[in-house]
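Hi support team,

I've been running sequence recovery on a batch of backbones for a student project. Most finish fine, but this one hangs at about 90% for roughly twenty minutes before it completes. I'm not sure whether the input is malformed or the queue is just slow. I've pasted the structure tokens below so you can try to reproduce it. Let me know if you need the job ID as well.

Thanks,
M.K.
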């Protein structure tokens, strides 16, 4: 019968979560060990058996959770995430162009995100921050595009290997924005155009020090909102538990009073 209350108690028990978390970590270590030819040569069979056993346990866990919650299982997006991760790893290994499916087994490690509450909180905060990040990404793309056009017009003759056309300029400025050897690029241009430092310093200040920091600000704001919502929800849960306890105490007092009245009569 769906749902099953006893199974729900089992799958939500802290020890059950700890067992699954430990198994995910162990499976991650096994998948990492399989990348070593020496370990595969010595313990290949054992590693394969452990990997298969872990997959079986993950499938059984999903079945138990579905049995425990019934159709409510699919109302939780994290359950969808776990189902997709396990389903992908169940795909049969193939050769040739589809051999990548075997490598996808490693995504089972991502189940730690759904099992560990702190990781789940971070992912939820990042997802809620996506709308704000989209606006910042659009602004950054606009700044990068305009700067690439300017750089192509100014430095295409001086450094054609970096700014020969719009595509080269976009890639070079993206490299400059990330701070990867940007001083080498700027100094190569400054040998021919000494005032080029004005462009590069301004670009780095606008992109790296201003726009990119907006991503951090949006992410932190989303995290704070997520934490506030969790505290509020936890407070409501505690209040409901307190009210239930008080109602039970009142009921016990009423029963005691009734017993006293019956005894006195």
């Amino acid at each position: 019968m769906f749902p099953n209350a006893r199974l729900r108690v089992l799958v939500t028990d802290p020890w059950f979560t700890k067992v699954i978390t430990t198994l995910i970590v162990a499976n991650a270590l096994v998948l990492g060990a399989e990348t070593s030819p020496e370990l595969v040569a010595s313990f290949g069979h054992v590693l394969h058996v452990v990997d298969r056993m872990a997959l079986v346990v993950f499938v059984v866990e999903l079945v138990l959770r579905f049995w425990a919650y019934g159709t409510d299982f699919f109302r939780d997006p994290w359950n969808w995430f776990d189902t997709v991760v396990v389903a992908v790893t169940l795909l049969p290994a193939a050769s040739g162009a589809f051999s990548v499916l075997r490598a996808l087994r490693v995504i089972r490690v991502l189940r730690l995100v759904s099992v560990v509450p702190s990781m789940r909180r971070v992912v939820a905060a990042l997802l809620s921050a996506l709308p704000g990040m989209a606006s910042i990404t659009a602004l950054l793309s606009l700044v990068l595009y305009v700067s690439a056009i300017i750089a192509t017009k100014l430095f295409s003759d001086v450094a054609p290997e970096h700014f020969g056309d719009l595509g080269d300029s976009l890639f070079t400025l993206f490299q400059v924005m990330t701070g990867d050897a940007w001083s080498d690029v700027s100094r190569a241009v400054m040998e021919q155009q000494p005032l080029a430092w004005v462009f590069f310093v301004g670009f780095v200040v606008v992109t790296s020090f201003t726009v990119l920091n907006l991503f951090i600000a949006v992410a932190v704001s989303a995290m704070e909102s997520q934490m506030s919502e969790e505290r509020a929800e936890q407070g409501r849960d505690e209040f409901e538990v307190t009210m239930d306890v008080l109602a039970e105490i009142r009921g016990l007092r009423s029963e005691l009073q009734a017993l006293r009245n019956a005894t006195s009569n």
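--
Follow-up from support: It reproduced on our side and the slowdown came from queue contention, not your input. Confidence is low (pLDDT under 50) at residues 94-98. No action needed from you.
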